[in-house]
Amino acid sequence: MSRHLRRALVGVTAAVIALLSVGPSAQAHGFTSTVYADVSSGDGGHIRTKLGLEYDLFVVSAADSEDDDPLFRTGNAAFEDGDTDAQAAALNAHAKSAVSYVTKRFSVTSDGAACAPTRVGDLTMGRREGVPYADLLLDWSCPEGGDNREVRSALFPDAETYVTGTKTIVTYEIDGRTGSAALDAGHPSFSMGQSWYERFWEFFRLGAEHLLSGIDHILFLLALIAGSRRLREIVLAATSFTLAHSVTFMLAALGLVDVPSRVVEPVIALSIAVVAGWYLWQIRRRGGHAADLELDGTAGRGHFSLDRAGWMRLVVVFCFGLVHGLGFAGALGIDEAFSWTLLWSLLVFNVGIEAVQLAIIALVFPLLTVVRRRAPAAGLWATGVISAGVCAMGLVWFTQRLFGL
């Protein structure tokens, strides 16, 4: 391979890694929040909503929006002390500001007419995934005769600059209808009369968008692709990863497994570095015969035979896939008791993730295969540079997440 071609390949692959590794999406799970909204029938024909809001974010946002400095001081002090009773007391002492903030950004309509909200009882405290959450009950009085009920959420918008990409997970059981929906800035509302395929699309889209915006998961997939020399290897690696993350995703999202994000996130970053580093270690071990990796990768030995190193790699990928599943579940943020409606939503979310994974594999792997067949040395340089960049980013993220930098 000529020196100019080698430099070009290094430049292109390094540029790709650099573009992937900068910008607001550099960390897939940082500074986001999830709102939970359960919709049911209330007393007197009202619609009742139970909202779960991340406590510290709720305090800061409500205090800022309603210009209520005492709420910020008392609420933040209670948060720093970890005093649940004091947190509830702070919110209830400033319930007017808290409820005003919510009802300006969360609404229910019936046939296009606004429903009037009324607070029910005091705000209470709970925890979700180890994080303090405030629960607020609201009864909505709607005009009589309305059938098309719509929920809209714009809570904790990006414009407030405290978090980005807030999602509102809605579950409802009302008027004989049950279902769930995922709202965000791009899709802030939904109708409780929506069809099954509309509900399917919402969670499919959410899963696809999560993987696309989660650069750490994409880099992990690129590391798998770069280190796979044959179709059988990437198929088995992707299958192993899918099975593993599907298991823990479902268990964690249903509340059966609970691992703190401070543990999950560093391990996800470490998995990126390990999988990419595995391939770099193979290149170093081969030394002057490293290009043989590319030639071996084009040999059609048939079936799904793997050598010992290949099976060890699958085991590593499976183990790290279990951890990635916890990350996916944390992104969706559902930890309710089992229900068929919830299970449907989780499965569709996972299908969205898998669709994007397959699309990336279908796009990248054939291109690498062509390069490897026509110029094994060039293929080695390309995959080596990609793996080195991915490994470096994984180590950087691991350090940042481990030490909270």
Walk me through the structure.
The protein is 58% helix and 16% strand. With 405 residues, the chain is α+β, with helices and mostly antiparallel strands. Strand 9 and strand 10 form a beta hairpin. Helix 2 runs antiparallel to helix 3, helix 2 (55-65) crosses helix 5 and helix 7 (215-226) packs across helix 12 (340-374). The protein is built from 13 helices and 11 strands. Strands 1, 2, 5, 6, 7, 9 and 10 form a 7-stranded mixed beta sheet that branches. A 4-stranded antiparallel beta sheet has the order 4-3-8-11, with no helix packed on it. It has helices at residues 3-21, 55-65, 69-81, 84-93, 95-103, 196-213, 215-226, 231-253, 261-286, 292-297, 308-332, 340-374, 376-403, and strands spanning 34-41, 47-54, 106-110, 113-114, 116-119, 124-128, 131-141, 149-153, 167-174, 177-183, 189-191.
Low-pLDDT segments, ≥5 res: 1-30, 297-303
SS-based structural class?
Answer: alpha+beta
Tell me the β content: 15-25%
Q: Report the total helices.
A: 13
Biggest sheet layout? 7 strands, mixed
Order of helices and strands, N to C?
HEEHHHHEEEEEEEEEHHHHHHHH
Average of per-residue pLDDT values: 80
- Oligomeric organization of the protein chains: single chain
Q: Strand tally, please?
A: 11
Apparent shape: elongated
Helix content: 55-70%
Radius of gyration: 24 Å
Give the N-to-C terminal Cα separation.
41 Å
